[in-house]
Design a protein that fits this description.
This protein is about 80% helix and about 0% strand. By secondary structure, it is mainly alpha-helical.
């Protein structure tokens, strides 16, 4: 369909890519928990912007470049792992300020957009999907419009899934407002998860 090779597998791959929890998911849920739906949607737009850049890079032949220059890919992997660990440490440090501290003032939605964009741009899972896996679904000799259709599929499905994350995450966050200890625990878990993701990715770099 639309000159996309293995169309059903293509759709399934997008859904699996979204459903597997990763750094982008954590960034969206953390933004939503801190400053509500607007912050969460800003993070969603940040991840989508990063995804869009990688899709364009795939179209420009970045996959071939990384195959020819494996050290460049390793560099991106190391940057991604380090950034994830840094974000996790920042969350853990924020929790250690003290239980009686005054809650942080709301941040501008642009802050959450930039954070999510950086997470997307330095996330090896995103790089692998759009730079290596994504081009495999292009049929040989497919017209240029096929890539635009594929990008639209990814964007629409990603937007739907991540918007649902924001809505559900906001409902949970509203109920946790009366329990500051639970909110601190949730943020601490997010910090540990980010450090764990970064460490796991670093351990797998060859």
């Amino acid at each position: 369909m639309f000159d996309i090779q293995n169309y059903a597998s293509f759709i399934a791959a997008i859904l699996v890519f979204q459903a597997v929890p990763g750094a982008g998911t954590i960034a969206i849920l953390d933004a939503t928990a801190r400053d509500g739906r607007s912050a969460g949607m800003a993070a969603v737009l940040g991840t989508l912007a990063g995804d869009g850049l990688f899709m364009l890079a795939a179209a420009a032949g970045l996959a071939a470049l990384l195959q020819a220059q494996p050290m460049a890919f390793q560099g991106l992997q190391w940057c991604g792992a380090a950034y994830l660990c840094w974000m996790g440490v920042q969350l853990l440090r924020r929790q250690s300020v003290g239980a009686g501290a005054v809650p942080a003032r709301p941040q501008a939605v642009g802050v959450y957009f930039r954070r999510a964009l950086l997470v997307s741009l330095t996330n090896p899972k995103v790089i692998l999907f759009f730079v290596a896996f994504f081009p495999l679904f292009l049929k040989p000799g497919a017209p240029g419009a096929t890539l635009a259709v594929m990008m639209l599929h990814v964007t629409v499905l990603s937007l739907a899934y991540q918007t649902a994350l924001v809505l559900v995450g906001n409902l949970v966050a509203v109920r946790l407002k009366a329990f500051p200890g639970a909110r601190r625990l949730a943020t601490r878990i997010a910090g540990v998860a980010l450090v764990g993701l970064g460490g796991r990715l670093a351990a797998g770099i060859r």
